[in-house]
Amino acid sequence: MTKILSKGISIEEISIFCEKIIREVSKAFVGKTDTHKLIMTAFLCQGGHILLEDFPGFGKTLLASSFSQVLGMDYKRIQFTPDLLPEDITGGYVFDNNKRKFAIRKGPVFTNILLADEIDRASSKTQSALLEAMQEHQVTLEGETMSLPDPFIVFATQNPVEDEGSFSLPEAQLDRFIVKLSLEYPNPYEENEILRKRTERKKVDIILEKVINPDILTAMRMAVEDVFIDPDIMNYIIKLVNKSRKNSNVVVGASSRRSLALLKLSRAWAAVHNRNYVTPDDVKQFCQPALAHRIILEPGLWDVPGTDRKIVMEIGMGMSVPVFKR
Length: 326
Fold this sequence. Notes:
Helicase, Ruva Protein, domain 3; 326 residues; two-stranded antiparallel ribbon; Rossmann fold; single chain
């Protein structure tokens, strides 16, 4: 049965739209359907900014541009470099010789989907130019506040293996990313499909069909707000986040923003799967993507890869889940 929600968008329609979007994106980006679902779920959340960390050549830029085409969104890309300035992101006032006065020049941040490519290569000051935009969906230039297009999503990438010429993201900015994801290597079948499709296409560019537009995505986001979540599951989220703060290997646990992230993501995940209610498994699905990058470990564990994910997994496995009677 179709459950009708806000703005005339139903749970069933959200699920159908998401299925079509993922299928269309898969024409350009072969495999990794589970990651596509996670990304689409993040897009359905207010403030659904994504940090994608993986090695060069994995198609992070292709993935961002493919989603922007299929979602019908305005898309801009910034290549972050050490000499990039905050004004190169936000824009600023420039003197117009014709009008003999200063005029606003809007930067690339004024878009729907902003690809911040290799974001860790810019200085912390430049990275922080995105903070207000990511949280408040606005930019302040010379005391004048200007709203960004709605929706506004930052899709940032970074390379985990190169430290030279890179700057760690400030904790405040990391906290604005609702999830941190990795693509990992394609399996042999997926890699064969990549080569086969490129051979058949006979060109580099891939034209994808637009499935929705910004207005429809906004309506889908509003509809997700009506997905039911039981108080016991909300309490389960609180216990998960609180346990991260008490772990002996963790210096700073997850913030309250992480509790909200798990709430939003679990409701969106339920909608993607054509349900108007949240289950404990929906919450567990996002423990690592939403929490692992937001805990600060003891200094002795900083150089041990994957420790943050392992600790979050142990926290999740050690928690009893709510049980509901039929």
